[in-house]
Structures are given as structure tokens and as C-alpha cells.
Amino acid sequence: MRKTVQHAARATVHLFGAAAMAFGMYLFVTVLLMSVIGMVVIAGAWLLPETVLLLRRIAGAKRTLTAEWTGVHIPEAYQPLTGTMRERVVTAARDPGTRTDLRWMVAYWVYGVLLVPALLLWSVGLVVDGVWCGLLRRPAVLLLLIVRLADLEADWSTALLKPSPQAQLAARVEELATTRAGAIAAHGAELRRIERDLHDGVQARLVALSMRIGLARRAYGRDPETSLTMLDEAQDQAQQALTELRQVVRGIHPPILSDRGLVGAVRALAASSALEVTVDESGLDQDVRAPAAVEAAAYFVVAEALTNAAKYSGVPCVDVRLVRTRRGLCVRVRDEGRGGADETGGSGLLGMRRRVAALDGTMKASSPVGGPTVIEVELPCVW
Question: Which CATH architecture has domain 255-380?
């Protein structure tokens, strides 16, 4: 019985919140009319994007309120309002998400008129008729009625606020365009890094090696001892060039991933790190491997995160966790350091995000000043 009363109380709170939002929507009519008049006058066309942004915030608040009641997230799909004033006005007018929000707003005006009186009658019934005193005798009559009303209101809002297929497609195209641009930028940066490593490292070694062999060849006839010394030095340079070339190859795709798999590769990173790294792979089935591209992305995320922790965290310990999820592979790196990591500060977070986005993955980075720093990456894949 207590749970029934608590559920009804939550339903009442939800409906009062919905009624308050409906009242706010009536006030929003004034802003909407001003935007329409501004469009007619032309000089006030700048009002339309701002009004649409305000409508998006209101609809977003309603999505949150409804999700809290139903426990089901309502997605949103909007085109970004960027560019020149004309581009922003055109986008705001043509965005399918705007039409979805306007449809919900009009419907909210209608059933909001019915919702407010219903709540008033419910409140009066509680106070005047002493409903709470008779709940033990007739709980299903009023309690289930208010819960059903909350369910009905949430169902209407979910149906009206759910993005249309056109809006979802437009948002998906925009997301793919963004991730593609990020992937191209990450690929270009990777190519420049490889070119720099080859030019400044391996190529320089090979040029010096060629010169050393040439000098040794010319010196062989007149000074064999010096020639042998030069050949020994040339051999050392050849070994150094091979070492640097292997490092470049590891930067493209670490061979250890192919040999040991992701868990073994991450453990090797932990062993070679200057920090004390704890690796938890209990949530990962080592007998089933993710695709090579996913493993490579996860490996580079861990490697970059450990490098950042060693440079900036100021603590000796880092925790790494690998988990197999329903959608794919989740990588979580946490340190209790000083925090304050900034993607724009050259910490490598932007490169990690681009690499993850190229595989349609998601990355969350939390690093408040004072710590902790938590990087969580989810890479979709089929196991």
C-alpha cells in the first residue's frame, strides 16, 4: 500500500511539473508571435533562430521530465544553427526538429487546458474530501487514476517529442559529416607524424649510414683499421635505424596486438609505464577478440591516457578497465591526479576523440581541477 501511495505521489509531482510547463508554454506564445512578426518585417529575422533555440531548450526540459517518469530516454535530433544570419534562419525554418517541437507545443496547449483543471480537482479532492483517510478502503479508484493520467501524459509527450525519421536522418548525416571530418583530420595528423618520424629519424639514420659506408670504402685501401672502425659504426647506425623503423611501424599498428591481443598489449603498456598501472580485464572475454581496428583504437587510447597521466597527473597509480558491453568494447582509464586536462591544451584528448569518432564510437572525458581524471571510451563492434 505504501508503494502505491508513493507511486501516486510521484505521479502527482510529475503532473504538476507538466502543468507548470504548460503554463510556461502559454507565455511562450508571445515570443513566438514576436518572431513571426519579425520575419514579416525582415529586420527582425534574427529573432527566429533565437526563438528556435529557446523552443529546443523547452522541449529538452520536457524530454528530461518525461524520461524521469518513464525511465526511457527520448532522443533529440537538431541541425546546428551556425553560419551566417541567413544560413541560421534557413536552418531554423527547415529543420525537421523545429516542426516536431512546434507540433508538440500546439498539442501541449490543447491537453494542457485539460491537465490543469484535472490537477486542481485532484488537489481539492485530497484536501476537502479527505481522500487520504479512505485510501485503505478504496486505493485503486483515485491512486490508479492519477498514475494512469501521468502515464498517458508521458506517452503523449514521448510520441510527440520523438524525432521524425527525416530529423533522425538529417542528424545522422550531420554526425557522419562531423566524424568524417575528424577522421580525415586524424588521418592527416597521423600521416604527418609518420612522415616526420621517417624524415627526422629513419631517413637521417640511413643517410648517415650511406655516408659512413662510402667513407669506409674509400679508406679501406690506405687505412684498413679506420675502415673497419667506420664499418662497425655503420653497423651500429643500421641497428638504430631498424629500431626507429620498428617504432614507426608500431605507431601504425602495434605488432603486439596481433601477437598477444588487446589484453596482452595493454598489460605490456602497463609494464613499460613509469606508473603503477592496474589492468582489470575481468569484464572482457579473452577468447573472443574485437575487430583489429577497434583493438588498435582501444590500444592507442590507453597508451595516450597513460602518457598523459605520467606527464600531468602527479600520482603514481592509474586504473585501466576493459569491458565487453552489449554495443561493443568499453575502455576506462582513471587516475586520482590533479586533473584539469583540456582538449584544447595539446593534451592529446582531441586526437583520441577523433580516432574514436572515426569508428563511430563515443568518448567521455572528465577532468575537474583537483581530479580525478576519467576517460571512458565505447567502441561499437560485433563480437
Answer: 2-Layer Sandwich (3.30)
